[in-house]
Amino acid sequence: MSARANTVTIALYPELFAGAEKTLLESADFRVQAWTYPSGVKALALENNRGRVVVLPYQGQMVWSAVFDGCDLTMHNMFSQPRPSPTVLGTYGCFMFHAGLLRNGCPSRQDDHPVHGEMPCAPMDLAWLEVGEDAAGAHLSVCGEYEYVQGFGDHYRARPGVKLRAGTALFDIGMEVSNLAGKPMDLMYMAHMNYAYVADGRFVEPLGVDLVRVRSSVPAHVKPTPAWSAYMADLTEEPTRLSSLNTPQLYDPEIVCFFDGVRADASGDAHFLLKHPDGPAFYTRYKPGQFDHAARWILHNPNQQVAAFVLPATCEPEGYLAEKSKGNVRSLAPGESALFSVTTGYLAAFEVQQLESGLTA
């Protein structure tokens, strides 16, 4: 255990996670639980008085689930527990994963990378807890480190983290990636948050966006139906038709939209909500200065139901070759680092009102 700048760091190691849920840390504001699923995947829960967020500290530090104020934020999926898998499709039931970092999106037939790249299920080298207090109050984080290195190839260090504060149903998800190689590195990153589908939920961008575009390409995993194709044609002409989740039969196959010109407030933050009919909302804010692209993904069928109302990214999710041709693949110089952060979670009805009145005041 070490301390620095009002933060206490507590090292984690795999033996702490053996067996059923056990308490590693408890205070007036927080509790940390650790366990191993029957599948063998290790899990860590960060809890406050509003709920809990479950992180897989050694598997890409993906966020497996999030429940606040009794509301499950996570997509409906086919997985009863996380599964050990080298790629995200083998355990696609999580609330959030770090998509990228060298490659991202749905690969074309000419691409040679897995869906959403190498980072989602990366075997983390280190994991630790941080407990501290700052001007915004008490906070609790789980952090990790992963070194990617290939002979004659790329070499980077990724440091993801999840931070929970006292008394709130919002939490921060961060990623720092550093190029350790002696040559430039391609960078494609998306904070892939798989929110639950909310029947009759309404999409709200309080500050607005300049343009919404419907994806025109059809990935290999999408099998169009006549009704879906007709609906997509209508959406292409009038994207505002998809302002609420009121036609679930048309969201299979998936619907993907892209945002151009996302507007930010005076602090540089963009705000997105998925409002529930009874007043609360799912919420995400991020800085377009870090993420110059954003997408929306909707799917509703018996096996998977998701309303990923905003997916901040450095590129669109069309695979490496397509994004490279569009000029959307960033480059990190040798020794250069990039930082990304989103704040996301659940707002009660009164918190939604406070947010919107503050943005319009």
Feature tags:
mainly beta; ten-stranded antiparallel beta sheet; six-stranded antiparallel beta sheet; 3 helices
What this model shows, in words?
This protein has helices at 226-237, 320-325, 349-360; strands at 2-4, 7-11, 22-26, 31-36, 42-48, 51-55, 63-68, 71-72, 96-99, 126-134, 137-149, 155-165, 170-179, 185-187, 190-193, 202-204, 209-214, 255-262, 270-275, 281-286, 293-300, 305-313, 330-332, 337-347. It is mainly beta and 361 residues long. The strands form five sheets. Strands 1-2-10-11-12-13-24-20-19-16 form a ten-stranded antiparallel sheet. A six-stranded antiparallel sheet has the order 3-4-5-6-7-8, with no helix packed on it. The chain is globular and about 55 Å long. The termini are far apart. The model has no long low-confidence stretch (mean pLDDT 94).
- Main-sheet strand order equals 1-2-10-11-12-13-24-20-19-16
* Portion in beta strands: 35-45%
Query: How many strands?
Result: 24
Rg (CA only): 20 Å
The ordered string of helix (H) and strand (E) elements is: EEEEEEEEEEEEEEEEEHEEEEEHEEH
Distance from N terminus to C terminus (CA atoms, Å) equals 45 Å
How do you describe this structure in short?
The chain is globular, with a radius of gyration of 20 Å. It has helices spanning 226-237, 320-325, 349-360, and strands at residues 2-4, 7-11, 22-26, 31-36, 42-48, 51-55, 63-68, 71-72, 96-99, 126-134, 137-149, 155-165, 170-179, 185-187, 190-193, 202-204, 209-214, 255-262, 270-275, 281-286, 293-300, 305-313, 330-332, 337-347. It is built from three helices and 24 strands.
